[in-house]
């Protein structure tokens, strides 16, 4: 099973990716994770892309395409994979198609912008341990304080509403083009094109998971 998982930040992509990987025994290929590792390891690629990533801009298509092509040749991808964070541009989608890799399904997790803002802006972390809370969905015993140490919780800069809205604008701009690309493919040749599946990801995680499994079975 070769899958692409699309969804804005806060749509529960990480959680659903985990369920899919376990059920289908396929690796998750996250370009964001691969790039962050290169930066953390200080590889030549990491040094080259650090400033671009820090600014929240897209890394060049050539770099990403090469990275993904190499990764999907690895033996663990033989029976399939789950692409997460790729393709982000039409050129990337085109390169994937031209490389002869047949994608079976594309799953797009749909969540309204307001719900994303509610989910992410309510997030609080304990800087010392990385423990994560949510003011509404998973509050600490004492508001604003870590359950274990009692130390104050903080809101990450990228969880602030203004930043979230900016990230969503970028996400929609990218994804809409990629989804139009795949919709056109399907219209032209539905037999040989990946099936595009939209899932309402405002439902509880296990309901979303059920719906994904029903659609990709
Ligand atoms: P993510 O964790 O998927 O949000 O990715 C984090 C960062 O990695 C993005 O802001 C981009 O700078 C870079 N990145 C990840 N995937 C891609 C991609 N497919 N194309 C271009 N840049 C990417």
TrEMBL record:
Keywords: ATP-binding, Cytoplasm, Kinase, Nucleotide biosynthesis, Nucleotide-binding, Transferase
Pfam families from the UniProt entry: ADK, ADK_lid
Assigned EC number: 2.7.4.3
Annotated GO MF terms: AMP kinase activity; ATP binding
Renumbered residue ranges of the record's region NMP: 30-59
Catalytic activity: AMP + ATP = 2 ADP
Residue ranges of domain Adenylate kinase active site lid in the record: 123-158
Annotated ATP binding sites: 10-15, 123, 132-133, 203
Keyword field contains Kinase: yes
Subcellular location: Cytoplasm
Binding residues annotated for AMP, in chain numbering: 31, 36, 57-59, 85-88, 92, 156, 167
Chain intervals for the UniProt region annotation (LID): 122-159
Biological pathway: Purine metabolism; AMP biosynthesis via salvage pathway; AMP from ADP: step 1/1
GO CC annotation: cytoplasm
GO biological process: AMP salvage
Keyword Coiled coil appears in the UniProt entry: no
NCBIfam families in the cross-refs: adk, PRK00279.1-1, PRK00279.1-3
Subunit structure: Monomer.
Domain notes: Consists of three domains, a large central CORE domain and two small peripheral domains, NMPbind and LID, which undergo movements during catalysis. The LID domain closes over the site of phosphoryl transfer upon ATP binding. Assembling and dissambling the active center during each catalytic cycle provides an effective means to prevent ATP hydrolysis.
Functional description taken from the UniProt entry: Catalyzes the reversible transfer of the terminal phosphate group between ATP and AMP. Plays an important role in cellular energy homeostasis and in adenine nucleotide metabolism.
Family, similarity comment: Belongs to the adenylate kinase family.
Protein name: Adenylate kinase
Name of encoding gene: adk
């Amino acid at each position: 099973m070769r899958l692409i998982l699309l969804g804005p930040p806060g749509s529960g992509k990480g959680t659903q990716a985990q369920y899919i990987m376990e059920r289908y025994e396929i690796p998750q290929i996250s370009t964001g994770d691969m790039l962050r590792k290169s930066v953390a390891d200080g590889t030549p690629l990491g040094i080259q892309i650090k400033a671009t990533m820090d600014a929240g801009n897209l890394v060049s298509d050539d770099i990403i395409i090469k990275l993904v092509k190499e990764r999907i040749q690895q033996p663990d991808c033989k029976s399939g994979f789950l692409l997460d964070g790729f393709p982000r541009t039409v050129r990337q989608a085109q390169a994937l198609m031209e490389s002869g890799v047949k994608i079976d399904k594309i799953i797009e997790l749909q969540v309204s912008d307001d719900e994303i803002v509610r989910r992410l802006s309510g997030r609080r972390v304990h800087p010392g341990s990385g423990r994560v809370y949510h003011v509404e969905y998973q509050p600490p015993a004492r508001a604003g304080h870590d359950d274990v140490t009692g130390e104050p919780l903080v809101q990450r800069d990228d969880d602030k509403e203004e930043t979230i809205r900016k990230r969503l604008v970028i996400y929609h701009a990218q994804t809409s083009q990629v989804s139009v690309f795949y919709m056109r493919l399907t219209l032209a040749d539905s037999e040989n094109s990946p099936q595009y599946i939209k899932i309402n990801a405002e439902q509880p995680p296990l309901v979303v998971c059920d719906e994904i499994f029903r659609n990709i079975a």
